[in-house]
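Predict structure. Chain length: 294.
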Amino acid sequence: MRIFFTGGSGKAGKYAVQHLRDLGHLVTNVDLAAPADGRSLRVDLADAGQVANAMQAYADFDDLDAGTGVPRYDAVVHFAAVPRILVVPDNETFRINTMSTYNVIDAATRAGIRKIIFASSETTYGVCFHDGEKKPAYIPVDEEHPTVPQDSYAMSKVVNEATARSFQARSGADIYGLRINNVIEPHEYAANFPDYVAHPEKRRRNIFAYIDARDLAQMVERCLAVDGLGYQVFNVSNDDSSVGLPSADVTARFYTGLEQRRPMGTYETFYDNTKAKRMVGFAPSHGWRDVVGG
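Prediction complete.
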């Protein structure tokens, strides 16, 4: 496939881009920080003209060789965003994230691209950046959980989901949103997780969950491979929690009195990834316990 991938220089994107290239796909990294190393474009995604032009332009010199004009993209993966609050002013976070997503999906559907994957967030559930402690409405948290956050970043992601749903209704394309949990790179296990084992309360805002960057890349692969689902959102997390306590102990310590909608495994994630497994064959295979133990 020829893939237009925004945010491919970011923490999560760089793993997904490399994974897709290793599988043989031609991936164009579209990022303000993209290196000038071929198949990369520096694009301000909040500028609709730049987005539309880049999506229907040559991506590298080898695109010229066939002599048949600009090749079309088969899919768009949109990961680029201001990654959290407290990076730029709140209104800029909201503006950049919502306008860039509108521009990317609008350009993709106008170009006739039938597969669009975009990054949503765990923050949509309103727990992560809440002022004070906020508990989920129930556990484990699945895609039916209310999405009424307080902060500008999570607000932008909720708006992006509504934008994507409306474009899907108009175009009929497959548009899948990934509610990505806290992304962890391999080197962060040894650096950070012993502290999480000792102080599990530090993982409360992430619903005691995480997603390995390599497994997130595999989720993108699976979404590209599975067609015909229309508009969908998927929680993306690893199978286990990010703390050493058994899930029953986490519940007793942090979630006393909350509705538990089904039995949970001994160390099962509180950020339910069942839908992703069932509908696209997501199969996370990495984990912090392989490195840290516990």
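Summary: The chain has a mean pLDDT of 97.
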